[in-house]
Design goal:
about 80 residues, mainly alpha, about 70% helix, single chain
Length: about 80
Amino acid sequence: MSVIPFNCMPGNTVTALSQALRRRHGNIPFLNLDYDGFIDSSRDAKIVSFMWQVKERYLGQRAAEGTIAKARKGERAKAV
């Protein structure tokens, strides 16, 4: 997650590079938020959505690890 002041040059640079970073690291969830000091009702929705994506990715990875571990145990049982 990157929270930047509205129209901040270093923050805009991070925003521009974040897509390449996501692709390089397996399309990880990444959220860029501009903060301008005003109340923004959509900001909360963006954060909730981002956290849901992070949770789903984590659970998916855990499930995949469990499936791989079960497959390896099955391979070991066949080998014995």
